[in-house]
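The aim of this short unit is practical: by the end, you should be able to scan a pair of folded records and say something sensible about each. We start with the first protein, listed as its amino acid sequence and then its structure tokens.
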Amino acid sequence: MSVSVTLKQLEALYWIAKLGTFERAALRMNTTQSAISKRIQELEAASGIAIFDRSLRGARLTERGEYLVAIATEMLATHDRIMELKADRTLPLRRLRLGVTELTAMTWLPRLVSALQESYPALVLEPEVDMSRMLYERLLDETIDLVVIPEAFATPEITALRIDEVENAWMARPGMIETAGALHLSELAQYPVLIQGGRSGSGLYFSKWLKSEGIAFEKFISSDSLTAMVGLTVAGLGVSYVPRHCFQPLVNEGKLSIIETHPELPLVPYAAMYRNDRPSTIMETVARLAARVCDFSGQFQF
């Protein structure tokens, strides 16, 4: 039968090492010296370590005994932190590495940061903006904790909580495309087309959809950056798909016009993603908070 190591044994060892004698440790722990001695004997039996050098007078630790004291100190400190959770009802968040794409950064990221700071004042937040594929790979590598990206990737160890769907529309510089009605997607091929690249979640999503519709653009410019795509479109260098509501102000200002097409572009699902193979409910809580505050309809929302 195996013998277990207990916190009482480790506590006895800690106080003997700290106070110098079994007697002082017994007084500190409000027990008898014989009880302290028994705990040390049990600890030696469980660990297989001769903790004290009994050839010398006093409580002299062996080299391995000193190492065991260091371990006992760490375990007792961990125990104290666990017990502190009982008194502190706030969620013990220290750092959150949050990854988002350009669209979230230019719309509701400020709102999310404000909500997180309000809910978790002690939180150290590290928001990062990058391409969807890069953020997803970092989530797999565990160098980031939670990402908000289009649902273009899936693996069993990642949970994806859908938070919203984004409507996109084809847009061009006013006057570039003259049409009385909706264009078929194949008709766009006569114009320079601006599309998002393979590192963009939206780019991957639309690439698969266009392929399923049998549409292939021979003349196109590919950019992973949404900001670059919008800038090139405003400059009249091509027609592109961009989030309709986010960039409606450019339409209102006469810098862009919406090109109606059939079939219409599908909605792009966005999700808050986190690893599900780690014992934590914190990420699920943050993901649900993101779902509650997300809003892709306007820029820089607070």
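Turning to the second protein, read its sequence before its tokens, just as you did above.
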Amino acid sequence: MTQAAVAFLRGVNLGARNKVPQRPLAERLTEATGAPVRHHLQSGNLVVASPTPRLAELIRKLIGDDTGLDIPVIVRTATELADVLDACPWPDDDPRRVHLSMWDDKHDAGDARAMAAADWSGDEIVLHGRNAWMRYATAFHQAKLGNHVIERRLGVVATARNADTIRTVARMAAEV
């Protein structure tokens, strides 16, 4: 039996930019896959009960067909998400200060080690495969470290969510 997966859309519904209504997208994805799809928030978190092998490409195409936008999509299976959640080095910290960045592109391990060892003025980063947990010293909006740094330093396309969102979608994926 195929396990559920979570698709994370990068940079959608931020103010007036990249509007991708989640309910219609979930409905279209259900039609395309034949599997139930739920969404969490309007920030691009789709839980697919029985995903297709090329789920990210399918979602990207559906978004493009419906909106004309080219939105990157990062997919994690329920098992992968549970594994990375278990690896969170700060499970009890304020979830607004703990974020997970995820990417699918290959990256240079040396660049990743250098990024992890850099001084981020109190912000911290711990890498876990194609994911990085980040903890901000004060607040996300004041941090030197962030998803944009990971993209620039590793040459990847990534998306990030706070720890509460990751816990919620992981629970949703486990319950499907």
